[in-house]
Design the sequence.
């Protein structure tokens, strides 16, 4: 296994720390396992491997989100380390996915630690407000960045620094059947993200659209693409909404409000 | 009684609300610290830097708060309008009522639109393209993210100008948006099943000279049958008591180990 240059380790650890701030604010992208894998791949010279590892983890975790501040596994750090180990050891993308999942699960505790540490800053802010010190309240909130970022920076930094030793040890005693199994598992894990979303979305009410989407890609994947499916989805969504509006106008008319009807149609 | 809020304070509140709303997130008051931090530029302007009113208002806003960050802009905006018009002294009950009354319903709508459906569409398309080896897919979340930032800016301004009135109006409009987005989201994830779940049953039965591949037989029944079965198995498991996504990962890894070692 090749070792990762120290400067790259530092950059990746800083990336993990900063990406967490994206996760708790705009969520524009860097916080996602997809970006984590891609950025790591780019820095270590195998962008394609990073894309595939990141994308698989992304699909697996599509429905896993911190609703109401719940703690979820840290699949961003998992994605960074899994991609790095896969590229440096030449183990392939499945190997990276197989490592990323347990790493992400293991780091769940770090999120809890960060959220707990911030109680300290809340108390500090409470005291400052008592004294009318607005600046102090602001500083307390800004200091809240530290637990968030350090709980991501430190594990990624240590993990990448000592990863070589650990990964070599794993490779020495992992049996072939387990490695094959983990590779197959990498292929089916995206099912989890899809299943969770199906639980959150009104599947029972809108199941016909789910079937349409499935059929298009199962039977016509050579003709269709996901972009094509989404465009069709936009069209069907618009039709659904306009049909619904027509029905409700019809109901109003039945109840003798047809004087208004012409106006509504003109609009 | 107080100084007029200008665009300058609103912009500064918006930026803090966008970036810093959860920096101080903690188990005790959740977004309470971030809420106070975000609204402070407006409070300082209304009450002046050094006043009993500012102290009182800060204490009120440091209390428990939790909602979808994207939706919080509407509440913060409306809150500013109320404090500017009436002041914390008389409006405290109304303001606390607005915050606690709106954060729950807003989280319900906001989590669905800005988290669940947004990810189901934006990040699954991006991940699909990435799986195909197309890095250009990474641009999709970035572009859509800019769109969300613009919406959130609009929310701050809407909240401020519409004040309390808007709660009912927004909830009504959101229903159509949620339904339309659910239609789109379900179509995309239906399409994801055969394209991103890579599950096969590589079993071959041999009867003398004739050998039958199970996977080929299944493909004749319906392409994507095995991925669909795995997805619905996961869906079914998630409906069981005591099941969560972390446990499901272990179940799927076990399933993968079995399927990967079939001959």
Sequence:
């Amino acid at each position: 296994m090749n070792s990762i240059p120290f400067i790259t380790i530092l950059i990746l650890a800083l990336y993990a720390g900063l990406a967490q701030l994206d996760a708790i604010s705009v969520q524009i992208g860097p916080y996602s396992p997809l970006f984590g894998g891609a950025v790591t791949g780019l820095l270590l010279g195998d962008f394609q491997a990073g894309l595939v590892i990141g994308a698989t983890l992304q699909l697996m975790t599509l429905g896993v989100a911190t609703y109401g501040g719940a703690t979820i596994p840290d699949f961003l750090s998992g994605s960074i380390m899994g991609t790095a180990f896969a590229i440096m050891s030449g183990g392939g993308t499945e190997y990276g996915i197989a490592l990323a999942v347990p790493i992400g699960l293991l780091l769940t505790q770090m999120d809890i630690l960060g959220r707990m540490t911030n109680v300290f800053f809340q108390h500090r802010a409470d005291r400052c407000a008592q004294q009318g010190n607005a600046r102090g309240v602001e500083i307390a909130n800004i200091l809240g960045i530290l637990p968030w970022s350090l709980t991501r920076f430190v594990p990624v930094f240590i993990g990448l620094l000592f990863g070589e030793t650990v990964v070599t040890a794993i490779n020495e005693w992992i049996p072939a059947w387990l490695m094959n199994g983990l590779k197959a598992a990498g292929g089916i894990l995206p099912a989890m993200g899809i299943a969770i979303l199906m639980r959150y979305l009104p599947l029972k009410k809108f199941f016909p659209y789910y079937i349409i989407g499935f059929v298009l890609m199962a039977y016509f994947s050579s003709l269709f693409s996901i972009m094509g499916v989404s465009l069709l989805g936009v069209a069907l969504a618009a039709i659904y909404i306009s049909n619904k509006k027509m029905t409700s106008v019809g109901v109003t008319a039945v109840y003798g409000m047809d004087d208004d009807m012409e106006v509504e149609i003109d609009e | 009684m107080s100084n007029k809020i200008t665009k300058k304070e609103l912009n500064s509140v918006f930026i803090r609300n966008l970036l810093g709303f959860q920096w101080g997130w903690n188990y005790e008051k959740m977004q309470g610290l971030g809420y106070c931090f975000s609204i402070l530029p407006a409070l300082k302007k209304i009450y002046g830097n050094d006043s009993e009113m500012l102290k009182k208002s800060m204490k009120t806003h440091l209390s428990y708060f939790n909602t979808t960050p994207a939706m919080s802009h509407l509440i913060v905006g409306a809150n500013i309008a109320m404090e500017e018009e009436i002041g914390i002294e008389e409006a405290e009950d109304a303001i606390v009522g607005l915050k606690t009354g709106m954060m729950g319903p807003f989280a319900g709508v906001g989590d669905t639109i800005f988290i669940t459906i947004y990810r189901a569409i934006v990040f699954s398309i991006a991940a699909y393209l990435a799986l195909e080896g197309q890095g250009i897919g990474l641009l999709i979340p970035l572009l859509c993210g800019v769109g969300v930032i613009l919406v959130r800016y609009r929310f701050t301004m809407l909240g401020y100008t519409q004040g309390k009135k808007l709660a009912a109006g927004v909830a009504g409009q959101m229903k159509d948006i949620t339904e339309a987005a659910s239609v789109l989201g379900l179509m995309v994830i239906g399409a994801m099943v055969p394209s991103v779940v890579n599950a096969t049953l590589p079993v071959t039965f041999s009867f003398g000279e004739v050998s039958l591949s199970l996977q080929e037989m299944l493909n004749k029944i319906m392409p994507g049958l095995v991925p669909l079965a795995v997805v619905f198995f996961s869906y079914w498991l998630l409906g069981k008591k005591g099941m969560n996504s972390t446990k499901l990962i272990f179940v799927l890894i076990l399933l993968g180990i079995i399927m990967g070692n079939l001959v």
User: Anything to note?
Assistant: The longest helix of chain B spans residues 88-131.
